[in-house]
Write a structure and sequence with these properties.
By secondary structure, the chain is α/β, with parallel strands linked by helices. The protein has 2 domains: about 5-320, TIM Barrel (Alpha-Beta Barrel); about 325-385. It has helices at about 15-20, 40-50, 55-60, 65-85, 110-130, 155-175, 200-205, 220-225, 230-240, 265-280, 300-325, 325-335, 350-360, 365-370, 375-385, and strands at about 15, 50-55, 90, 135-140, 145, 180-185, 190-195, 215, 245-250, 285-290. The chain has an 8-stranded parallel beta sheet. Helix 5 packs parallel to helix 6 (about 155-175), helix 9 runs parallel beside helix 10 (about 265-280) and helix 10 crosses helix 11 (about 300-325). It starts with 12 loop residues before the first strand and ends with a helix. The structure holds 5-thio-alpha-D-glucopyranose (GLT) and manganese (II) ion (2 copies). The site of 5-thio-alpha-D-glucopyranose (GLT) has 10 residues, from strand 4.
């Protein structure tokens, strides 16, 4: 497989160190792949043609590394970036693996844990910025509960807000050119995670002191886990100017967080997502937050990574074909046809318009009787996706 769908120079495809570096440990089984060093992962990403690499502080520097070890790792990582041309567009903090965070980080009931989480995040922001990151993701994996007896949700919200306000001010104080992107997930690893959907995050952001520097990082699988329509959340985020980053992967509805290769499960949803991102001109990172099946060795991991990127490129081409397909476009035009009869009522409110609209007459029965050709449009879309038109 090497053709125009393989990643081309100038692509914006990124992978986290934890994605292609995933060693295949799960709650029921031990690792199946050897741990690569961060530098080795960068070389792998360079080989498959990715643009960027993202990391949690501890993907790069282990939580207990000595200053000398940390310096050595950074040196090797920077050399790998320079050798491959791979860049670091995004970084984040691991606030979920260490036992200290078992009851959350910014929302923990323990003020010492909350303070430690802030300290760890400030250090991780410094590290991310040093390596070039301009987006900083917050996924509150442990910010939740198993029982609401343990934590007051109002108090948790206040703590989360206070932490983000503090960190926004820290970034400004340092003069960093960095924006925050909040990532929602409904559950796993906690029984319930606060601010469980992208829509909830969007509402929360408006309550922050520096809301202008905070947006969202929606992930396909996280809305789909909750049985929701991911595209609609992405569209809302875009409409609000808040789509700062996106995590692409796939997932069957209602399952645990599967983090499958982009497009592997819901091809049609993936198509409408790519079409949307291309139509509106989203120009941020296209981050594949996914990992290879546990069955794979590192050759399979490369197949996985290339598969994610090819899927995006193929769906992008399909979106172009959809826009160029005369029959499809004729249906789209018919669906959106406007006979001009309502022109006098359109746009902003005025008392005259309201009065005119109140006295207008509508043929309610005819409106209800009109057929809408959505069956044909959907079938044509699927046939285009399946390559028969
Ligand atoms: C973790 C999670 C992801 C987040 C990452 C950022 S880590 O894999 O499941 O969705 O984006 O912390
Ligand atoms: Mn996920
Ligand atoms: Mn993610």
């Amino acid at each position: 497989m090497s053709d125009k769908y393989n990643p081309q120079p100038g692509n914006r495809f990124t992978f986290g160190l934890w994605t292609v570096g995933n060693i295949g440990r799960d709650p029921f089984g031990e690792p199946v792949r050897k741990q690569l060093t961060p530098a080795e992962i960068v070389y792998l990403l360079g080989e498959v043609g990715a643009y960027g690499v993202n990391f949690h502080d501890n993907d790069l520097i282990p939580i207990d590394a000595t200053p000398a070890q940390s310096a050595q790792i950074k040196k090797e990582f920077k050399k790998a970036l320079a050798d491959t041309g791979v860049v670091v567009p995004m970084a984040t903090t691991n606030l979920f693996s260490d036992p200290a965070f078992k009851d959350g980080a910014f929302t923990s009931n323990d003020p010492n844990v909350r303070a430690y989480a802030l300290q760890k995040t400030m250090n991780a922001i410094d590290l991310g910025v040093e390596l070039g990151a301009s987006t900083y993701v917050f996924w509150g994996g442990r910010e939740g509960v198993e029982t609401d007896a343990s934590k007051d949700p109002l108090e948790a919200g206040k703590r989360f807000r206070e932490a983000l306000n503090f960190l926004c001010s820290y970034v400004k104080d340092q003069g960093y050119d960095l924006r925050f992107a909040l990532e929602a997930k409904p559950n796993e690893p906690r029984g319930d995670i606060y601010l469980s959907t992208t829509g909830a995050m969007l509402g929360f952001i408006e309550t922050l002191e520096h809301s202008e520097m905070v947006g969202v990082n929606p992930e396909v699988a996280h809305e789909q886990m909750a049985g929701l329509n991911f595209l609609h959340h992405v569209a809302q985020a875009w409409d609000m100017g808040k789509l700062f980053h996106i995590d692409l992967n796939d997932q069957a509805f209602g399952r645990y967080d599967q983090d499958f290769r982009f497009g592997a499960v819901n091809l049609k949803s993936a198509f409408f997502l790519v079409k949307f991102l291309e139509d509106v001109g989203y120009d941020g990172s296209l981050h594949f937050d996914a990992h290879a099946y546990r069955t794979e060795d590192y050759e399979g991991v490369k197949d996985f990574a290339i598969g994610c990127m090819r899927m995006y490129a193929i769906l992008k081409e399909k979106a172009e074909r959809w826009h160029a397909d005369a029959e499809i476009q004729a249906l789209v035009a018919a669906i959106n046809a406007d006979d001009g009869k309502t022109d006098a009522f359109k746009g902003a409110y005025s008392a005259d318009k309201a009065a005119a609209l109140k006295s207008a007459s509508f043929d309610r029965v005819a409106m209800g009787a009109r057929g809408l050709p959505y069956e044909r449009l959907d079938q044509l879309t699927l046939e285009l996706l399946m390559g028969v038109r």
